[in-house]
Design goal:
five-stranded mixed sheet; metal-binding; alpha/beta; TsaD; binds fe (iii) ion; binds adenosine-5'-triphosphate
Length: 356
């Protein structure tokens, strides 16, 4: 199967072509038009600007992806598109483009949940069997997903407030670092002292796999203000120490909660157990390193996608579409763009602690 994927749910307009069957595919092309420079002056993604940019660029992006794969639209078996969750203006641009292409070329249309795209990334990059444990950590989400199939996710737990990506971005903003904050904070943390500030590790005292990141942000703000009041401003070292201490708290919390989620996952008796991470925050090297050690301690395989497949891309959307299409699922022209779309919407929560 050859699938065209289109992604436009946040601030990356992306198109990609993948070819293969579920569990064994390769990426023929993956084009991403980022919008960082459009939002740089605003300290975050401005939905209206994002929507306009997606609408202006999505067709060129698709054309470029087809060109790079040396294919024509007539060569694809189906058109997959992110139908949510995300900024609605952007999602609409992608869905309208996909509908137009599907109608024009007479191709099947497959709506994809953006989070499923992230969560299925381990099967795009490696031959991984279900079930696996997915830690999805991104700009807007943080959840442990027991992944049993392309549409079969049970949420074992997740954040009760902010997502880690949001926390990284806010930290960067508070310290005058550029957006997206994750890479900037990671770079500063590399030459900082992670033990100088003792930031909270929220919810570790409570059972279950739920997480919280909003208190961390407040603690960071207080620590910053205390230094500013005391010394009149932040030195480079202060900034690096704040970043390192913040990152250490995120890593500790994720590691402890992942260990708990692993216990629940291993109770499923998977034949070849796998812990996988995905989402933009999975690009963080400190998080990857800690989870790798944790997995080694549990004697299970650890998978983290290459950095370009952690943050938003259309290859993951094409792949999730491929799994749906191969299973006989597709959509028609009534496919709706959805701002909110929880992955486990139709599934019973496995545990009380996972419910929100
Ligand atoms: P969602 O997938 O939840 O809808 P999104 O699509 O906006 O949100 P992604 O593109 O998956 O999110 O991830 C973007 C986030 O990843 C940003 O918050 C960014 O700061 C964060 N991020 C990127 N690289 C790193 C890194 N090295 N360390 C920490 N965070 C990072
Ligand atoms: Fe994303």
């Amino acid at each position: 199967l050859t699938i065209l994927g289109i992604e436009s749910s946040c601030d990356d307009t992306a198109a990609a072509l993948v070819r293969g069957v579920p569990g064994t595919v390769h990426i023929l092309s993956s084009v991403i038009y980022g919008q960082a420079e459009l939002h740089a002056d605003f300290g975050g993604v401005v939905p209206e600007i994002a929507a306009r940019a997606h609408a202006e660029r999505v067709d060129t992006c698709v054309k470029e992806a087809l060109f790079q794969a040396d294919l024509a639209l007539s060569d694809v078996d189906a058109i997959a598109v992110t139908a949510g969750p995300g900024l609605i203006g952007g999602v609409l641009s992608g869905v309208m483009c996909a509908k137009g292409l599907a109608a024009g070329a007479g191709k099947p249309l497959v709506g994809v949940n953006h989070l499923a795209g992230h969560a299925l990334t381990p099967r795009l990059t490696d031959e991984i069997a279900y079930p696996y444990l997915m830690l999805l950590v991104s700009g807007g989400h943080c959840q442990f997903l027991l992944t049993r199939g392309h549409g079969d996710f049970s949420r074992l737990g997740g954040t009760i407030d902010d997502a880690p990506g949001e926390a990284f971005d806010k930290t960067a903003r508070l310290l005058g670092l550029p957006q997206p904050g994750g890479p900037a904070v990671q770079a500063e943390a590399a030459h900082g002292n992670p033990t100088r500030f003792r930031f909270p590790r929220p919810l570790l005292d409570r059972p279950g796999c739920d997480l919280s990141f909003s208190g961390l942000k407040t603690a960071l703000l207080r620590a910053r203000d205390a230094i500013v009041t005391d010394k009149g401003g932040l030195t480079r070292q202060d900034r690096a120490d704040l970043c390192a201490s913040f990152q250490a708290a995120v890593v500790d919390v994720l590691a402890e909660k992942t260990a708990r989620a692993l216990t629940l996952y291993l109770a499923e008796n998977p034949a070849s157990p796998v812990l996988a991470v995905a989402g933009g925050v999975a690009a963080n090297s400190a998080i990857r390193a800690r989870l790798e050690t944790l997995s080694a301690d549990h004697a299970i395989r650890f998978l983290a996608p290459p950095l370009a497949l952690c943050t938003d891309n259309a290859a993951m959307i094409a792949y999730a579409g491929l799994e749906r299409f191969a299973a006989g699922e597709q959509d028609d022209m009534t496919l709706a763009a959805r701002p909110r779309w929880p992955l486990d919407a139709n599934l019973p929560a496995l545990l009380g602690s996972g419910k929100k």
